């Protein structure tokens, strides 16, 4: 039984309502004294209990009713925590894992792909979940967060909150999944019948990166071309491409000189453009399946843009939720192909990518949130691309999300993890993510998932590899 007034339910705000409903997961890798495993487990468990008491939002539960997501907070809820035992004879050696530089394949397992909120009426699932796996001489801390209320920035906030608790440090944490704006429509999904689509269609037409899904498979899921047509799913693989700051500085200087610009492009813009050109070329030339999708005339780079510093300034100070929108660079496929083969063409593409990201301002955000608020069902809101199309790349960064958080775990001789790896139930297709790294790090780790054929071609691409220091995996 819940004590009186302990249990509260509310709808997710519109932006969370229209966000993906699976889990995101990262694994923090620490060395650990095997003799102190139980001490480590008990300390993490107690830290989570204390965190729950301070911020019930982190321990809340989500459920759906007719496709709408609601969040329930209760003083009886805790953040689920468990120790995952290694199968007999399968415990890995942490030092070997570190020598291998924590290859991404170690973090692609079915257990990381836990179910989300896929149906119309799903039962209660936790906002967050934490588990521990031990290696010989190491501790792997897995953090799961429901994407319906969290993005990369929220992941950073959650990691900081747990880390602070392990150190017995009190710190402010956001406690609301709504942010303070004047317009109430930006917090609610309209209560309409599916037949009342006219205004929704009008608004979604002004947001070309979105589309209406025909099958309630969303929200924010790809709108597949010819969904009823059988298309062979290629065998996939992932690798991490390591770029040193020195090589990226050379790339940035080359772009600046070629464009005769007064300003050097950022490392992010330069790396995103470089990846766009070479990964697109590798996919288009090598992903030819018996029943595949032919490449279209336009190539598209999908960047995920955190709009917190670009809109509603100050309104998100107490907000724990999603604040990311796609910004799409669309150019001819010939132009992208040329950028993979010629430095001048590559340099000219960088300001185009920057320009497509710079359009994300408060007006841009309001327009898209207004569209979402008019959806008769948030699961109708899809993104207007098919990841199976070889001329599309989804690019994102988690570089500043969590690697500098300090921890105090018994048996762990360091205050920061050796590395943070993204963990999923399977490889992606046409995705690139800059992984978390410490502030003092002099490298960028780009985690790329592709078909096996495209990955082989990318690794054999001399113009790509001349910028790469080494590969992991």
UniProtKB/TrEMBL annotation:
Q: Does the keyword Metal-binding apply?
A: no
Coiled-coil region list: none
What are the entry keywords? Answer: Transferase
Citing just one GO molecular function, the answer is: acyltransferase activity, transferring groups other than amino-acyl groups
Enumerate the Gene Ontology biological process terms.
Answer: secondary metabolite biosynthetic process
In its UniProt entry, what is this protein called? Uncharacterized protein
| Organism in which the protein naturally occurs | Xylaria bambusicola
Q: What is the lineage of its organism?
A: Eukaryota, Fungi, Dikarya, Ascomycota, Pezizomycotina
């Amino acid at each position: 039984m819940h004590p009186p007034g302990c249990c509260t339910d509310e709808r997710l705000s519109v932006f969370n309502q229209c966000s993906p409903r699976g889990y995101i997961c990262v694994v923090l890798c620490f060395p650990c004294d095997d003799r102190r495993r139980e001490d480590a487990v008990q300390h993490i468990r107690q830290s989570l209990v204390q965190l729950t008491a301070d911020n019930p939002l982190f321990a809340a539960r989500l459920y759906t009713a007719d496709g709408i997501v609601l969040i329930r907070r209760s003083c009886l809820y805790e953040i689920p925590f468990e120790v995952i035992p290694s199968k007999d004879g399968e415990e890995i050696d942490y030092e070997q894992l570190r020598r291998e530089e924590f290859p991404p394949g170690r973090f692609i397992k079915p257990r990381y792909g836990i179910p989300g909120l896929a149906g119309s009426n799903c039962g209660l699932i936790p906002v967050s979940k934490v588990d521990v796996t031990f290696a010989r001489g190491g501790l792997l801390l897995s953090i799961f967060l429901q994407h319906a209320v969290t993005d990369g920035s929220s992941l950073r906030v959650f990691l900081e909150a747990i880390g602070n608790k392990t150190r017995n440090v009190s710190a402010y944490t956001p406690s609301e999944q709504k942010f303070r704006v004047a317009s109430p429509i930006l917090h609610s999904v309209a209560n309409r019948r599916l037949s009342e689509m006219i205004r929704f269609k009008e608004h979604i037409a002004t947001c070309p990166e979105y589309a209406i899904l025909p099958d309630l498979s969303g929200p924010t899921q790809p709108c597949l071309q010819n969904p009823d047509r059988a298309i062979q799913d290629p065998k996939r693989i992932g690798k991490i491409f390591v770029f040193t700051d020195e090589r990226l500085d050379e790339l940035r200087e080359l772009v600046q000189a070629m464009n005769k610009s007064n300003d050097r492009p950022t490392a992010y813009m330069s790396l995103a453009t470089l990846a766009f050109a070479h990964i697109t070329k590798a996919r288009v030339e090598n992903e030819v399946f018996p029943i595949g999708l032919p490449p279209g005339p336009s190539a598209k780079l999908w960047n995920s843009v955190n709009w917190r510093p670009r809109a509603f300034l100050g309104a998100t100070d107490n907000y724990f939720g999603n604040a990311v929108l796609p910004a799409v660079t669309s150019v001819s496929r010939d132009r992208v192909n040329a950028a993979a083969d010629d430095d001048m063409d590559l340099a000219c593409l960088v300001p185009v990518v920057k320009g497509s990201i710079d359009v994300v301002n408060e007006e841009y955000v309001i327009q898209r949130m207004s569209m979402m608020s008019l959806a008769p069902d948030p699961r109708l809101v899809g993104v207007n691309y098919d990841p199976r199309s070889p001329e599309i790349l989804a690019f994102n960064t988690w570089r500043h999300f969590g690697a500098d958080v300090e921890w105090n775990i018994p048996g762990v001789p360091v205050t920061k993890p050796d590395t943070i790896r993204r963990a999923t139930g399977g490889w992606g297709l046409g995705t690139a993510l800059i992984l978390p790294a410490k502030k003092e790090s002099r490298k960028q780790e780009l985690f790329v998932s592709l078909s096996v054929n495209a990955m082989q071609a990318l690794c054999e691409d001399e113009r790509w590899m001349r910028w790469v220091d080494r590969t992991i995996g």
